[in-house]
Amino acid sequence: MPKYRRFSDASMSEKMLDTMFLITIGIGYFFALANLYYTHQGRDGKPGLSMDDVIDAYYGSHNQTRLGAAINGPMEPNLPNEAAKRTILDWIQHGATKKEWEEKVKPIMDNNCIVCHSAQSGLPIPHFTKYENVVALTKTDTGATIPTLVRVSHIHLFGIAFILFFVGRIFILCEIPVLLKRTVMVVPFVFLLMDISSWYVTKIIPGFAYVVVTAGGLLGVSLGFQILVSLWQMWFYRPKSVPTEL
Ligand code: HEC
User: Fold this and answer.
1) Atom 41 (ligand 1): residue with closest C-alpha?
2) How far apart are the C-alpha atoms of 195 and 105, rounded to whole Å?
3) Segments forming the whole domain that contains residue 113
4) Do 44 and 109 lie in a common domain?
5) Which of 4, 13, 32, 205: CA 20 to 30 A from 87?
6) If you take atom 18 of ligand 1, which residue's CA is the nearest one?
7) If pLDDT is split at 50, 70 and 90, which confidence band does 25 have?
């Protein structure tokens, strides 16, 4: 039987190095969470971090357009009634076609908007006399771009793989049931891959935001477990038997 190393075999110096590393990673993790909060909170217009913020970040806010935001906000008083607003919002929703614009939307704008939104007014605002100018304001925010996701993916994969590897190397020295040890060691890598691949899926299917958040959360839980169990075993656990399996 080969003898595998355990914390009881580690020198005081090694345990001190491990401890400082684990504590620093733990603190780093909380800053990562705080960073996540500050990057995404309030995206959906409401303060605080919610699932809608995550959806907006990856999928985009497909019903928030400059035109939609204007008639739901500052430009609303210029519309005669709720039905006119509904007509314009539906038109955006249907893909802002030229045909529907001419039939339904242009009459509303001719009557209510072009007093100001035209060359005659002299105001430095878009002219709603032309379809092209209006349709330009109906482009949706489609969330994170592929180049951005690719950039963040490679940083995350390299960076987090390193963290998981070194934390795992330390955690291996614990004395816990071997199946539990192997699971806790391997699953964070799986969660990491799930988390990152679901960013791309969320771009197409907004519901995948739940997978992003769940996988990210579980990664944190397994990392936290490894750190806490390692620290406990390193300093407070007295081994009962000679370990036989890594
Ligand atoms: C009394 C003049 C006036 C009328 C009438 C008016 N607007 Fe405006 N609109 C403005 C001004 C001034 C701005 C720029 C300042 C601002 O954004 O609040 C603006 C801005 C906008 C913007 C933002 C443009 C951008 O670059 O993002 C949209 C969209 C818009 N209006 C839509 C409408 C619609 C639709 C109507 C008709 C229902 C309308 N407005 C009627 C004066 C007007």
Assistant:
1) 113
2) 42
3) 66-138
4) no
5) 205
6) 74
7) very high
Asked if residue 85 lies in contact with residue 102, where contact means CB atoms within 8 angstroms, the answer is no
Which of 4-18, 47-61, 111-125 is least confident? 47-61
pTM: 0.63
Is residue 128 domain-shared with residue 207, that is, in the same domain?
no
The alpha carbon of 60 and the centre of ligand 1 are apart by a number of angstroms equal to 24
Same domain for 132 and 148?
no
Pick the closest to residue 78 from 123, 119, 54, 109 (CA basis).
Answer: 109
Rounded to the nearest angstrom, the distance between the alpha carbon of 129 and the centre of ligand 1 is: 13
Instruction: Report, as an integer, the average pLDDT of 188-213.
Output: 90
**Cβ of 113 less than 6 Å from ligand 1:** yes
67 lines ligand 1 (CB under 6 A): yes
Domain membership of residue 2 (yes or no) is no
pLDDT at residue 245, rounded to an integer: 58
Residue 69's pLDDT is 82
pLDDT of 183 strictly over 90: yes
Is the beta carbon of 32 within 6 A of some atom in ligand 1?
no
Residues 88 and 76 in one domain: yes
E strand residue ranges, 53-201: none
Residue 36: predicted pLDDT: 83
Q: How far is the CA of 47 from the centre of ligand 1 (A)?
A: 26
Report d(CA 217, CA 68) in Å as an integer.
Answer: 34
The answer on 169 and 152 residing in a single domain is yes
The length of the chain in residues reads: 246
If you average pLDDT over every residue of the chain, what do you get?
A: 88
Tally of structural domains, the chain = 2
Cβ of 123 closer than 6 Å to ligand 1, yes or no, is: yes
